[in-house]
Amino acid sequence: MTEKFEKMIEYQALDMELRKINREYNKLPEKKKLDVARNKFVEATNKLDANSAEAETLGAEVEKIYADYKNLMASFNEIEKKYNSAESDEEKAGYLSRFESLRSKIESCKGKIDDRIERIKRLTHDCKQQLALKKTVKEEYDKLKVKLEAFREKTSPDRKRIEDKLKELEPQIDGAILTTYKRFKSDGIAPVFVPVVGDDEKSYSCICGMQLSQTNKSELKNRSVSQCETCRRLVYLK
Ligand SMILES: [Zn+2]
């Protein structure tokens, strides 16, 4: 094993240690609860935004319908005046159908306004509930955060030590190898590099339990590293 590769393995060991600490953190019940609280908070915020946008649209509709209503009322009053000053029954009768048509339009406006206002009321009620929920969730979130910060605090020296060492090691590792390592890791493979299992070439296998193929074996001999065809880890010669 080359010195640069040894550094890679050292880097990986530390990285796995860091991963373990992070996993422990992520496995804490408080962390799960925190994530749930955060999602609830976001959900309530989204609902509030959607509700207020809808209420705004309804408000604009009310304004428009109310303008129509006022115009209809003005027409109604106008005709009423004419009706009252009409000189004959015949003339009066002529206004009746106009009255009827206006009255039904006015009623329809009133109905629409009532409907919008009822919907705005419901939205307002829901907004109040979402606000209360946000408050509760936020309080819960803050409490959990304090508990989790205590854990963070406790593991902080360890994390710092590892992170510093990782930074120190990085320039000592072959760039291509480190890039490969990071790519594999982001694909969810950990550890990326594993020592070959078995003492003689015949029985060489991967840590996953799979016997290495002939291709793997010759690659291992030539390049000291070969990718397991089963688990995709990179097997290296000790
Ligand atoms: Zn394998």
Describe the structure.
The chain has 238 residues and is mainly alpha-helical. It has a domain at 21-172: Helix Hairpins (Orthogonal Bundle). The chain is built from five helices and three strands. It has helices spanning 3-27, 29-84, 89-169, 175-186, 214-223, and strands spanning 193-195, 225-227, 234-236. Strands 1-3-2 form a three-stranded mixed beta sheet. Helix 1 packs across helix 3 (89-169) and helix 2 (29-84) packs antiparallel against helix 3. The relative contact order is 0.13. The model has no long low-confidence stretch (mean pLDDT 94). The structure holds zinc ion. Zinc ion is lined by residues 206, 208, 210, 228, 230-231, 233.
Topology diagram in text:
Elements: H1 3-27, H2 29-84, H3 89-169, H4 175-186, E1 193-195, H5 214-223, E2 225-227, E3 234-236
Parallel strand pairs: 1-3
Antiparallel strand pairs: 2-3
The structure holds zinc ion (ZN).
Concise account of the structure shown:
The protein has 238 residues and is mostly helical.
CATH topology of the domain at 21-172: Helix Hairpins
Distance from first to last alpha carbon: 7 Å
Strand content: under 5%
The shape, in one word, is elongated
Oligomeric state of the chains in view? single chain
Spell the H/E element sequence: HHHHEHEE
Q: How many alpha or pi helices?
A: 5
Which strand order does the major sheet show? 1-3-2
Helix content: over 70%
Low-confidence stretches: none
| Protein structure class | mainly alpha
Bound small-molecule species: zinc ion
- Main sheet specs: 3 strands, mixed
SS elements, strand count? 3
The CATH class name of the domain at 21-172 reads: Mainly Alpha
Q: How confident overall, as mean pLDDT?
A: 94
- CATH architect. name of the domain at 21-172: Orthogonal Bundle
- The whole-angstrom Rg is 37 Å
